[in-house]
Amino acid sequence: MRFAKLHGAGNDYIYVNGFEERVLDPEGLAVRISDRHFGIGADGLILVLPPEEDGDVRMRMFNADGSEAEMCGNGVRCLAKFAVERNLVKGRPPSSVAPKAVVRVETKAGLREVELRRDAAGVLARGSVSMGRPRLAAVEIPVLLEGERVVDVPLTVGGQTLWMTCVNMGNPHAVFYVDSAADWPLEIVGPKIENHKLFPERVNVHIVEVVSLEEVRMRTWERGSGLTLACGTGAAAVGVAGVLVGRTGRRIVAHVPGGDLEVEWPTDAAPVRLSGPVEEVFTGEWPE
Description:
By secondary structure, the protein is an alpha+beta fold. The protein folds into two domains: 2-130, Diaminopimelate Epimerase, Chain A, domain 1 (Roll), CATH 3.10.310.10; 138-276, Diaminopimelate Epimerase, Chain A, domain 1, CATH 3.10.310. It has helices at 26-34, 73-85, 186-194, 232-245; strands at residues 2-8, 11-17, 44-49, 57-63, 68-69, 100-107, 110-118, 124-130, 153-157, 160-168, 172-177, 204-212, 215-222, 226-228, 251-256, 259-264, 273-277, 279-285. Strand 10 and strand 11 form a beta hairpin. The longest helix has 14 residues, at 232-245. It is globular and about 50 Å long. The chain starts with a strand and ends with a strand.
């Protein structure tokens, strides 16, 4: 089975061309292929499939533990690059020298439109995606609380009380503000929050250190994958949460361990836009 490994700000996935390859057990394959010691090593597996509705391509994403996720902001940008460069998107051949290419991707969270831009060498090196409008009601996260918004709500974990803001960006997120993102014990507390009884579908956990109204540092414990170098939907959720709690403006740069992501939420009624790098690392052949 042929594959390619791509990443967006260090959030890396194994991509398989579902137009040509048939994957019978994607859940099991995701576990084996993502293992960083006995597999290729990745945060998960993404299948690039023919569209079923109005998109150019369709995405199925599986976390490193084999669970299927609704969306991935970094993964969908890289998927668009993969599709364009392999001529899977009609009318957008890889030899094109246009400054940008637009790909409509069907996901389990809905249709996402990705705009790719080329660098000075003509390489598709950066992507911007409309992430849709955030869903903020407790039932939409989902979190077993009440209310139209879950903003600065106390959550007790391991004997300490944290203050939580929840956002659904196609998948569930819980955001916590701390004094120092680098020093906070995310690897210990993250899995406890991910699997907390309040979250029936588990949750992505983000800790955020505010640098200014336009800049934050964040780290992520990703549902189904653990510590990751970046999370695109998470950065979008952090951008929304910052507005809700009054800590940041509507346009921020999120410094993540793997690089920088840009988030913009123009108005409450507008979709969130996420921008960041896209890069192919290598290609290969998996023996199964």
